[in-house]
Specification:
The protein has about 450 residues and is of the alpha+beta class. The chain folds into three domains: about 1-60; about 65-220, Immunoglobulin-like, CATH 2.60.40.680; about 280-460, Immunoglobulin-like (Sandwich), CATH 2.60.40. About 20% of the residues lie in helices and about 30% in strands. It has helices at about 1-60, 415-420, 430-435, 445-455, and strands at about 65-70, 75-80, 85-90, 100-105, 110-115, 130-135, 140-145, 160-170, 180-185, 200, 205, 205-210, 215-220, 280-290, 305-315, 320-330, 335-345, 350-355, 360-365, 385, 390-395. Strands 2, 4, 6, 7, 9, 10, 11 and 13 form an eight-stranded mixed β-sheet that branches. Strands 14, 15, 16, 17, 18, 19, 20 and 21 form an eight-stranded mixed β-sheet that branches. A hairpin with a 2-residue loop joins strand 10 (about 200) and strand 11 (about 205). Helix 2 packs antiparallel against helix 4 (about 445-455). The longest helix has about 60 residues, at about 1-60. The termini are far apart.
């Protein structure tokens, strides 16, 4: 009986042990299933997040709209009989284009770039044209834009598959070798000088596509004629001939000899010249400057002060002083600053003023006036600074805006493209450059301002 009870107890223990092991196995399986489920959920969440970020990264690049750039030919051959060849750069796509910067490389050892033309076929972006040619490296940067506020005016035209951007004219380079020389004209990533690829339109910035585009170049023969390009006239410069000086000579007649008269030496003539006296002496002058910037009629909400470059020059063009002065805005749209000049000559002056995003203005009146913005021109008047306090009120003329930092003295395609391609931006680094009326946003008002300044476009120099 005792043996039977002992066996029964051991059997019961084995059953309990097996049940405990089964529970442990069951719990282990449940734990592993949970880990698998969590891992699967995490995987799908990660995939979803990657897809979300990928889609949004593509949208941030104007929905990845690609604009194709192609050469009009795939090969060019130069001979002494046909020393020059033309090559068009064409832009393909249906999206409207406001402007573009294109970078090209050519084999400088066998080709010379004669000119960059804009014939009628390439006039779709004709309004502003800028080119940087780096002959030592054989690279070119071309920027063209169409400054139109009407998107319908922008190329390409309806139903047009492409339009001509620019035409390059090359000539062969002479060589002592009798063998044919070869090379390639290609689009390059850049940069060229400070220029980068850029394509912009009403929808924003596009992605330029120029992969695989190249032109095979063959130059045969040795002696190529020198091509003399026709000079390009600048409509903004009027050539004034330098008048020849008028020489007045006084002749003394030769006296007739008379033996009865003792010759008396003729005295040398006395020359009397009337000279305009040059003012002498030096003064200390305090000057209150008052200026107005184009497009600003009241106190702007996004600028408490700006730095302006001031220069004062004698009437003969000699620079007396140059400095940067901080101007503060007023409720009437004027900007004012006080400065002091120590020990300057007591003479007549003219003044140059250049704002941080503006063309330089040359002024030679205390109270200049213009009826149309930008039309005032310094003529014969002169500014006379007196010792003590002076006020130079330039608020009846406007400092034209559009020469954006980094300034180069001209309103050009780079400036216009920057504003057009940043419409709607309120990012601080963008408005610091492209917000011309200091209202905190780059928009159509800034675009209108810079287009108006394009009619004048250059700094007025000393």
């Amino acid at each position: 009986m005792v043996v039977l009870i002992s066996k029964t107890l051991r059997f019961g223990e084995r059953i309990l042990t097996n049940m405990s092991n089964m529970n442990h196995i069951r719990n282990s399986i449940k734990s592993k299933i949970k880990l698998i489920i969590v891992g699967v959920i995490g995987f799908f969440i990660a995939v979803g997040m990657l897809g979300y970020f990928y889609q949004n990264s593509q949208k941030s690049r104007a929905d990845a709209i690609a604009i194709d750039f192609k050469f009009s030919q795939t090969s060019l051959t130069f001979t002494p009989e046909e020393p020059t060849q033309k090559l068009d750069i064409n832009i393909f796509g249906t999206k409207k284009i406001s402007g573009a910067t294109v970078l090209v490389s050519y084999p400088k050892d066998i080709l010379k770039l004669e000119s960059i033309e804009k014939p009628e076929i390439c006039n779709s972006l004709r309004e502003t044209f800028k080119a940087v040619v780096d002959e030592p490296t054989g690279t070119i940067a071309i920027t063209k834009i169409l400054p139109s506020g009407n998107d319908a005016d922008l190329p390409p035209a309806a139903g047009q598959p492409y339009f001509c951007f620019a035409q390059l004219i090359f000539s062969g380079v002479s060589s002592t070798s009798t063998e044919a020389r070869t090379g390639k004209i290609v689009f390059i990533d850049g940069p060229v000088s400070t220029s980068q690829w850029e394509v912009v339109g009403p929808e924003g910035e596009y992605a330029p596509n120029y992969t695989g585009q190249e032109v095979a170049v063959t130059v045969t023969g040795q002696n190529f004629p020198t091509v003399t390009p026709s000079p390009t006239s600048n409509p903004n410069i009027t050539n004034t001939p330098t008048p020849s000086p008028t020489i007045v000579a006084t002749l003394t007649p030769t006296p007739t000899s008379n033996p009865n008269i003792t010759n008396t030496p003729t005295p040398s003539p006395t020359i009397v010249a009337t000279l305009t006296p040059i003012p002498t002496g030096f003064i200390d002058a305090k000057v209150n400057y008052r200026i107005k910037f184009q497009g600003i009629t009241g106190k702007p909400k996004n600028a408490n002060s700006v730095d302006v470059k001031l220069g004062i020059y004698r009437a003969d063009g000699e620079q007396i002083d140059s400095r940067t002065v901080t101007f503060t805005p007023q409720t009437d749209g004027a900007w004012v600053a006080d400065t002091e000049y120590k020990n300057i000559p007591n003479t007549d002056y003219f003044v140059t003023i250049k704002g941080p995003k503006h063309l330089q203005k040359k002024i030679c009146e205390i109270n200049p006036i213009e009826t149309v913005s930008g039309t005032y021109r310094c003529k014969d008047e002169k500014i006379n600074l007196k010792a003590g306090n002076n006020t130079l009120d330039f608020t009846d003329i406007y400092m034209l805006a559009g020469d954006l930092p980094l300034q180069n003295g001209i309103v050009d395609a780079v400036d216009i493209i920057y504003i057009r391609s940043n419409f709607g931006s309120q990012i601080a680094e963008v408005t610091a450059r492209g917000d011309l009326n200091y209202d905190g946003i780059v928009d159509s008002q800034d675009y209108g301002i810079i287009i108006s300044a394009l009619s004048f476009k250059y700094d007025e120099v000393e």
